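Why Amino acid ABC transporter substrate-binding protein, PAAT family? Reviewers of the renewal asked for a concrete example.
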Amino acid sequence: MLKRVIYAATLACATAATAAPIKLVQDEAYAPYMGLENGQPTGIWAEFIDEAMSRVGGEYDVVVEAVPWSRAVNLVESGQAHGLIGTYHRPDSRPWIGTYSTSPVTEKVSVYCREGVAQSDWAYPADFAGLTFGNNAGFGTPGKAFFEMVDAGSITLQEAQTTEQNLKKLEKGRIDCYVQEQLAAEMVINGKGLKGVVRVLDASAETAHIGFRADWQDEESKKFIADFNAALQSMMDDGTVAEIVSATVGG
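Here is what the prediction returned.
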């Protein structure tokens, strides 16, 4: 089994050729994919990057930071970071992302509601009009059609910072439903013993990527992205990606 490595905030190497670090940012509270422990980024994505950079070698100085997701989005959009870790493919809502990495994982997005609020044969999101949904601040997980209904006033939206906060609001009846990646949600539901929260239906399957800033378009960026993608692909091909996921979730 692949040895778990606590991912250091900086993958700096004395032989790094770049003048300034390549800064990648991730969410600090989206287990098992992304997290923060003892000041260090953790989770499945941190493991992916750690292993990929070990395969690339010491040519690059890469810094990974874990912050609240809304701040991570802002750091990339405002040009303060080079890549957003774990983003879905969102060219319309995130035009400031120019290049998406190879996707090592596909996440299953599901709708969770208070028991008795919704039916499994409902069409998402149209049949959920009139309900109040939770969402992680800055997350585009619920999808374009959902946010169009929010903008039209058909769905009421309340945002919190973490999956746990939203699911606890759902359990307490402060919101009606919540859209989240299935593994991330059910780890909290099972881990915290939440009651009265049911998975109503699966809304979509989303590929997850590192989204690189659109205005980072020099020779360094092109070479780094190509090398990183090649390393990720080799990890997918030899089973390392599956092994990391299994080790991280305890499977």
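The chain has two domains: 10-105+206-249, 108-205. This is the kind of structural detail the renewal will allow us to pursue systematically.
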